Amino acid sequence: MAAAGIRGFPELRRRFYHQCGRKIPSSIGHRHYGAASSLIEGKETINWYPGHMVPATRNIREQIKSADFVLEIRDARIPLSSANQELQEILSRKKRLIVLNKMDLANPNMALKWKEYFESVGQNHIFVNAHHSKTVRKMLDMARTQLQSAIAKEPTLLVMVVGIPNVGKSCLINSMSNITRGNFSVQEQPKRAKVGPLPGVTRHVAGFKIGERPSTYVLDTPGVLVPNIENIETGMKLALTGAVKDTVVGEERLARYLLSVLNSRAAHLHWKSRFSKSSAIITDSLSGVRDLLASACIKFDGSLENNEDMESLVDVQMNHLRKFFHVPVELGDAGLERVSKHLLDLYRRGQLGQYTLDVVPGKNSKLLKLKL
């Protein structure tokens, strides 16, 4: 395999699709999404706009007018892609703190670069992990600092929490509630917000009291997206991080995109894998997956900038994973869907590493012109 290099991979690719009873997809080399997204196939626009998002967006626009402060929750792995661009104009007119949640899943070095970026455009922000009270306390301190003048003169404060689906809004509110619980008597203990692993758990605007003197209320809002996600790669990032349901994009399509990202970032070089070209000892599921993906990358001598080469590498990796997870080839598409779910689950639990998917825009980037 190593001698034949990537030129031997197309034959494996044909064999792989033949075994699964599938037609080999036509080349998509005319698309230019970059090496990490060379496996994006299908419709160019991703749409996931359930009926509840229409009135929810309308309610958010109305409620935000009376808010004293806005906590805009984003995913630390996609600091720009997780911003709802349709709400940015109205949000920019309010006192706001951008809260980049799930920092434990993002690359620490990239987080520093994003910190510098937000500082360069004068946007207040903070990276947090909603499950760690220390970072949530820092967030509350920053919010209090920005609300200093209002705290001194207002008897009641309204803080609004907004964001796209599944960025951890409700989990963050629960952490805020736990931290401020000592401010209340037993009878006044605030209710907890609903938390779930799927996007769309919170469907109505709901209020929670988190403080006294002044009385401070937090409005938890449903996660809302724009009606049409026209940038296909933005849509894939949103789906990969859980803001869009997997079924909208397709588990296999999403898993293949993930593998192309891992390959383009040379993830196997950071895994400290025990894999060697001569032998490998697989002791558990996680190390086994890493070793199998690494083995394909080590034997790969094609160009990651070439779409067909990347496709062939991902085909080999998917076949390795199918065998590792003991998924019968006779299952065809259903089997690959099962393999894809296993891989996506490992990624979302942070077991494949910490990856920031959004790249910090350069000085001449059009993204600098976006309202953050």
From TrEMBL:
Q: InterPro entries this protein is in?
A: G_CP_dom (IPR030378), GTP-bd (IPR006073), GTP-bd_ortho_bundle_sf (IPR023179), GTP-bd_ribosome_bgen (IPR019991), P-loop_NTPase (IPR027417)
Which residue spans traverse the membrane?
none
Alphabetical list of Pfam families matching this protein: MMR_HSR1
Annotated PROSITE patterns: G_CP
Keywords of the record: GTP-binding, Nucleotide-binding
Where's the CP-type G domain?
Answer: 57-227
Query: Is the keyword GTP-binding assigned to this protein?
Result: yes
GO terms of molecular function: GTP binding
Q: Which NCBIfam families match?
A: GTPase_YlqF
Among PANTHER family, the record links this protein to: MITOCHONDRIAL RIBOSOME-ASSOCIATED GTPASE 1
The protein's name is CP-type G domain-containing protein
Report the source organism. Riccia sorocarpa
Q: What is the lineage of its organism?
A: Eukaryota, Viridiplantae, Streptophyta, Embryophyta, Marchantiophyta
